[in-house]
Design goal:
heterodimer, A: 115 residues, mainly beta, seven-stranded mixed β-sheet, four-stranded antiparallel β-sheet, 11 strands, B: 110 residues, six-stranded mixed β-sheet, three-stranded antiparallel β-sheet, 0% helix, globular
Amino acid sequence: NAGVTQTPKFQVLKTGQSMTLQCAQDMNHEYMSWYRQDPGMGLRLIHYSVGAGITDQGEVPNGYNVSRSTTEDFPLRLLSAAPSQTSVYFCASRGGTLIENSPLHFGNGTRLTVT
Amino acid sequence: AQRVTQPEKLLSVFKGAPVELKCNYSYSGSPELFWYVQYSRQRLQLLLRHISRESIKGFTADLNKGETSFHLKKPFAQEEDSAMYYCALSGSGGYNKLIFGAGTRLAVHP
């Protein structure tokens, strides 16, 4: 199992550009989520999904869109990048609803810089 | 508001010294607390959770509801313990909305 795979590892964008951060997991996990990690602020939840076709907002959803068309994939879209979105982004998944307290499995992260 | 506070950005100790990474939380309900760790060039991963009452890699953490704390302790630090440690809270949002602290970097010197 590859676990949680994020692409790309690094990305530089100009203000106003759009892009999609990819996240895929091969563990058949129902729950997937996106966090951003900023110095001094820890990890903050952007969006999450508890299954295909279901998404919900986290703590800092503004400026980001998500969709969950399959169990495996949970892309994060930045429609118009802003310097405030410069961060390290982590995708995480967790086992199904019958294992609610199962641990989060994290990807390796995507380091995004917006100039 | 629900919050996790890790007051130390950096904790620097020598090998063999005791370690205590502090975590305080604010939540009026019955919380569940976790410690996650990120070693250099590795993924963030679960270290331990309070409901399991387990010791992982020599680390333990006790939930103190009176002091709203969940400090991570190890009696004798090892160089391989050097990592970034995050305390996390499952509050009213449940397991779907874990709240993380800002993290503490532990540096264990030889």
